[in-house]
Amino acid sequence: MWLLWHFPLPPAAVRDHEAPGNGGATCRGLSAADMTKGLVLGIYSKEKEDDVPQFTSAGENLDKLIAGKLRETLNISGPPLKAGKTRTFYGLHQDFPSVVLVGLGKKVARIDEQENWQEGKENIRAAVAAGCRQIQDPELSSVEVDPCRDAQAAEEGAVLGLYEYDDLKQKKKMAMSVKLYGTGNQEAWQKGVLFASRQNLVHIRPRSWIEEQAMGSFLSVAKGSDEPSTNHPLFVGKGITFDSGGISIKASANMDLMRADMGGATTICSAIVSAAKLNLPINIIGLAPLCENMPSGKANKLGDVGRARNGKTIQVDNTDAEGRLILADALCYVHTFNLKVILNATTLTGVIDVALGSGSTGVFTNSSWLWNKLLQASIETGDRVWRMPLFKHYTRQVVGCQLADVNNIGKYRSAGACTSVAFLKEFVTHPKWAHLGIAVVMTNKNKVPYLWKGMTGRPTRTLIEFLLRFSQDNA
């Protein structure tokens, strides 16, 4: 099965799915009215030893409203709050039974060139997420959040910090609505709602269409499963709905995580739907080849040779290197459109984790222009990218194999992330193409403070920001 999205200008089909009014983002559809509320407020660290920690403007306003009780209580409650730490106060205001102060660090708005992000924004996301988690309580159904000088970053922290997948559990976490406190920038707040939310909208291409397109490389992987899956920028996302490794079967430990091997497909879907909700004046096409990679009597065997849509033959020497096989046909197919750029986001290979850990998405690209656009977008969102090499040195390790034009694995164990993308490059002729290796950021293990453990949806916000900037450049 393939999923195909095409959002022609204007993208009107999803306008009726807006977030609740009054700047609210309500979890599980609960009304934000008539609920017992909590409040999250930011406070900056001292610039100098003799300074007094500074409230945000929202905190200053509340402190004046309650005759200085917030400052008074803070002064006797303990040492100054460090960045990302929280402190909860009770009974300060009749409308807010709980008030959580969160440490924002120093009052900065600079780009940290070593960290490749906007430090102030990232501090806000982490602090607000910590505050919202702290305030989750069965007695509180709603939380109002200080914009902290950047309403978008504050809302992203709130929504991402409160999100945890528990749909399959009988006992679910408290559903809590999130609203902007005070009179901050409502437009930026709603943008944060959009950037942090995930949605899907798809058009399904059946097996018969795939066969008509002569996508033999994709079908060579899909045939092992007995279960069918239900002037533009173009996104391609890998959609292996479960990856057992095929005949080259994976170890059972952590194989359950391979249900997330379709992370590229979900990421691009979220980015495209978000672009539609932003009414960006561009046409966007998205492709996601979807199938399982399972061992069976019909599955690929080592040494099998398949033929991709562009006619190149592929020798399969490892059935667990299946993502590049389905993407080969997807990348061939996208060249039938009139495109400005091609981006594919995939959990192509876990070995990129050795190079980058979870610090950033690895980007391989044949265009410095495209790389700079992605880099600037990632600095804004804090969901970083890092450029990886796409040398001919790696191409020579996948071409000229014994039986076919190209091999689905490199000649050597080293540089597996680089050789996997060198394989993809054999099916790309477009001068502005980028591959985003997201296996490294697929899950979170408490390394990103405003994300729960589990699947992350990274780098959706960076892709949305890229599309936003792309649309402005091409207006």
Automatic annotation (TrEMBL):
Q: Which GO terms describe its cellular component?
A: cytoplasm
Keywords noted in UniProt: Aminopeptidase, Hydrolase, Protease
The keyword Hydrolase belongs to this UniProt entry's keyword annotation: yes
Cite a single GO MF annotation: manganese ion binding
Its GO biological process annotations read: proteolysis
Catalytic reactions on record: L-cysteinylglycine + H2O = L-cysteine + glycine; S-benzyl-L-cysteinylglycine + H2O = S-benzyl-L-cysteine + glycine; an S-substituted L-cysteinylglycine + H2O = an S-substituted L-cysteine + glycine
Q: Which EC number applies?
A: 3.4.13.23
Question: Residue limits of the Cytosol aminopeptidase domain?
Answer: 318-325
User: What broad class of enzyme is this?
Assistant: hydrolase
Q: Name one Pfam family in it.
A: Peptidase_M17
Function in brief: Cytosolic metallopeptidase that catalyzes the removal of unsubstituted N-terminal hydrophobic amino acids from various peptides. The presence of Zn(2+) ions is essential for the peptidase activity, and the association with other cofactors can modulate the substrate spectificity of the enzyme. For instance, in the presence of Mn(2+), it displays a specific Cys-Gly hydrolyzing activity of Cys-Gly-S-conjugates. Involved in the metabolism of glutathione and in the degradation of glutathione S-conjugates, which may play a role in the control of the cell redox status.
On assembly, the entry states: Homohexamer.
PANTHER family assigned to the protein according to its UniProt record, in alphabetical order: CYTOSOL AMINOPEPTIDASE, LEUCINE AMINOPEPTIDASE-RELATED
Family, according to the entry, reads as follows: Belongs to the peptidase M17 family.
Q: Per its record, how is this protein called by name?
A: Cytosol aminopeptidase
Write down the species: Pan troglodytes (Chimpanzee)
